[in-house]
Design a protein that fits this description.
Blueprint (H helix, E strand, L loop, with lengths): L9 E5 L7 E3 L3 E10 L22 E10 L4 H12 L2 E7 L5 E15 L5 E15 L1
């Protein structure tokens, strides 16, 4: 496996149609994804002192963090609109090797900041709602 460029790790937002068309959220400088899972412990007396987990049980979630420079793109405005309304929307993560992940996400947090004589930047946190599928 070869190294992949971080600049090719893109966050895209759906347009609300069925099936959705995706537009890249512009201006992102950093993007991070975490896949989380809660475990169900089924350890019992015959486990020999070792913890046992139930495969396929528990809850799974995907968290996405991103930060960038605000450019005022349609996709950035859609993220802000969803954050203010608490709307769950389709998002896609795409990678340099062509792999993609799609699912519904809630904008958990959206922060804007800016310095005098500097650019306006933002950070956002997305939390999955329902299954996230690898394509």
């Amino acid at each position: 496996m070869t190294a992949q460029k971080g600049s090719a790790f893109l966050l895209k937002i759906g347009d609300g149609a069925v099936p959705p068309a995706y537009e890249t959220v512009a201006g992102l400088r950093t993007t991070q994804m975490s896949i989380n899972g809660d475990t169900v412990v089924v350890t019992h007396k015959q486990s020999g002192g070792w913890r046992e987990l139930l495969s396929g049980a528990g809850t799974r979630s995907v968290s996405v963090s991103a930060a960038g420079i605000f450019l005022g793109s349609n996709a950035e405005n859609a993220v802000r609109t969803n954050a203010l309304a608490g709307t769950i929307e389709n998002y896609e993560l795409s990678f340099e090797d062509g792999a993609r992940m799609q699912g519904k996400f809630l904008v958990q947090r959206l922060d804007y900041a800016g310095d005098f004589n500097g650019e306006r930047n933002y950070t956002l946190q997305l939390e999955s709602s329902g299954p996230v599928t690898a394509l």
